[in-house]
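User: My collaborator sent over this chain with a note saying "see what the structure looks like." That's all I know about it. Can you take a look?
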Amino acid sequence: MRIVVKAGDVLDELVDVLICTANPLLAMSGGVNGAILARGGQEIQAELRSSFKTGGRGFVTPGSVVRTGPGPLSVKHVLHAVGVDMSYNSSIDLVATLLKSALMEASRLGARTVATPAIATGYGPLTMSDFAEACNQALGLTYLGLEELRIVLRAQDDADLVAKAIQPG
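Assistant: Without extra context I'll predict from the sequence alone. Here is the result:
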């Protein structure tokens, strides 16, 4: 799988699957999810809320990946990756496990291209170096069918740091 690290807006990527940061309440209140909602993603928020009806509780556990449709985005699926707990705590290991789960789900969905922002670095406590370490752990596996992972960060400095820190698989 080819890894591309770049600066930009992850919502503008033309990929099969977008991995999107999420909180345990699946509330699209900020970060990438808030940006999706601002672009007209109300149907995605409704789909996320309906997932609680089948789950029987009002939150999901950290490490969960919840799939929705694309809403207003030019992707086939959105994978909402819960990389923080209710107090917005996280860890490198949690994000690595989460990335593995999301990439396996993207593979299962038949995706060839996937984009992700940095998980747990905005409202969460991780640094970009921590996120890069989580990527290194997750990228040690093979994900059948996936041809390209785009890691899209807001700032060029962050993209340069993560690109330099990611070890070739």
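A starting point for your reply to your collaborator: The chain has five helices and six strands.
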